[in-house]
Design a protein that fits this description.
By secondary structure, the chain is of the alpha+beta class. 28% of the residues lie in helices and 24% in strands. The strands form 5 sheets. The chain has a 6-stranded antiparallel sheet. It has a 5-stranded antiparallel sheet with strand order 17-16-15-14-18. Strands 7-9-10 form a 3-stranded antiparallel sheet.
Length: 411
Amino acid sequence: MEQGPQQIGIYLIERLLGRGGMGSVYLATDPTLKRPVALKVLAPELAADPEYVARFVREATSLAQIRHPNLVHIYAVGQDASRHYIAMEYLKGHSVAELLRQRGPLPWPAALRFLGQVLSALDKVHAAGIVHRDLKPANILIDEDQRAILMDFGLAKPRHDRSVTTGHALIGTPEYMAPELAEGQEADFRSDLYALGVVLFEMLTGQVPFQGKSAIATLRQHLEKEAPSVRSLTPTVPPALDEVLARALAKSPADRYPGVRALAADLCALVRTPELAALAAAREGQDSAPTVSMDAGAPEPGTAPTAPVEPLTAPTVAAAPSRRRWFLAGVAACVLALALGGLVIPRFARRLDGDRASRTVYVVHSRTLGAVSGRLIAIEGERGRLRLKTSSGVVEIPYADVLKIEPVAGR
């Protein structure tokens, strides 16, 4: 293990599991209960920023208030000297992102089964008034019991809580961001459903519906392009999934599903799982969910088939020990990392060639260079770099080093 802390709070550090733009995750031992924990520790350079600390603590408090079998469980949140940490349950498994990289597209019944479990958890989260804001395959873990676990609430925010803001910036992962977020508007529950539509599309096809040459180009596609037909890429999926995805990925929030249960009801007509059936029943106002048979045989006439429980593993990769990833896992060496904070882009950054960009001075917070101020020239390029014109010349910063981009106050 690389040099690092041997103990944080009461927790004895075993090894580093992963590191992202906003901190590190360690495998640790709780000496009082004799159990392993995943310990998320905020990066030292960010611990001095009250906004980041507030967001970090909010992740723990948001999750600690909710209990659900498909949500990560929080054990404790604390501070040890200058270190802020969250202790959470530790389970082995693979993220959906890892499964997709190793296996390619998932069988559509399995994809809907996993999505149904995520929807069940998200229904509980939304009922508590919390918007996740960073739903993506890297934040969904499939554990050893083939159970989908919703993770990483670093961007989660109570629907009407404006106590922690990002000024004129938007936060998230571009490939999964709803059009309204690309324009810098507030996220609501329908923004989460859009992101899940992207996740479902990727599980079925092995690719996201929108992928530009840069983060800005990707956001522009969310705003301007229609998602391709899923059946044009995976002809074996039911035609009705194209209709479901068209509604989930509608550009206007008003044209999307109004809530988790409405989406679940349409999916339940295709594959009947306990989670989807319960959500569909709740939507209809029933007191209890119908009994669901998990028999994988032929369905009775007029009923949807049950989802087969086929174990999904990534055989060429050792089981991922952490229940969360703090970076956007990319292809080959192209990684866009900013786990807890995601990618932070100025609200109007997609108009870099316009007058606003040419006049506005931004501060770019970088892990390697610290805070650099200047005028944005580009947030794209073959090497994936941000170019900033400063008083001393043009500065290039790799995407992976960027923590935050924000306009200078008063500009």
